[in-house]
Amino acid sequence: MIDDVENTSTRRDSVRESYSARAQEYTDHFGCMASTHPSDRALVRSWAATVSGQVLDAGCGPGQWSNFLAECGCTVSGIDLVPEFVERARARYSDLRFDVGGFERLAAATGSLGGVLSWYSLIHHGPQQISVPLAEFARVIRPGGGLLVGFFEGPTVGMFDHAVTTAYRWPVTALGQELAAAGFEVIETHTRTGIGHRPHGALTARRKMTR
Predict the structure, then answer these.
(1) What pLDDT shows up at residue 3?
(2) Range of the domain at 100
(3) Mapping DSSP to helix (H, G, I), strand (E, B) and coil, where does residue 138 land?
(4) Does 33 score more than 60 pLDDT?
(5) CATH code of the domain covering residue 155
(6) What is each CA distance from 28 to 31, 65, 71, 151, 153, in whole angstroms?
(7) pTM higher than the cut 0.70
(8) Across-strand partners of 116?
(9) What is the DSSP string of 30-78?
């Protein structure tokens, strides 16, 4: 157990340091909605329309998706592991709340959120780690609340050399099984492959009702 905690902490520190070193470059390339795919915006917008209550943008980066959710009518806050991203988000979207933190232990009370957007924020969690943030999402989302996950899709679970630091691909079915094990019902699955881009996947899910 101690080794697992230490490995998780080391991985988290490595991810944070890697993104911190390239925060400005990342923001310049991906920190606005113009850099996103139209179908992704349509998916997030349609998902936002189904969610009521407080929404958390988990892995908010420089805040562009948080602001997009707010424009969709959501009451939203963002959290990110990288302080430089949070600083940029606070400066650009001063009417929204952004906090520094990871997903292993969220400050939100149990069952207090209407939904969580996790858009490419779990890509650095491998098969041995991903159950932890998913369980935490399940804890904070109220029964019937929504989860939307965007990720790199592939035929098998496997790591690859991401531009910033090592990331993982997931088959839709495999990641869906992880969501189900955490207490979610998968509602929709989406995949997209474009020339010059890695295959993309997205899952919308609902927190299972408790008995």
Answers:
(1) 36
(2) 2-207
(3) helix
(4) yes
(5) 3.40.50.150
(6) 6, 15, 21, 21, 25
(7) yes
(8) 56, 147
(9) HSSGGGS-HHHHHHHHHHHTT--SEEEEET-TTSHHHHHHHHTT-EEEE
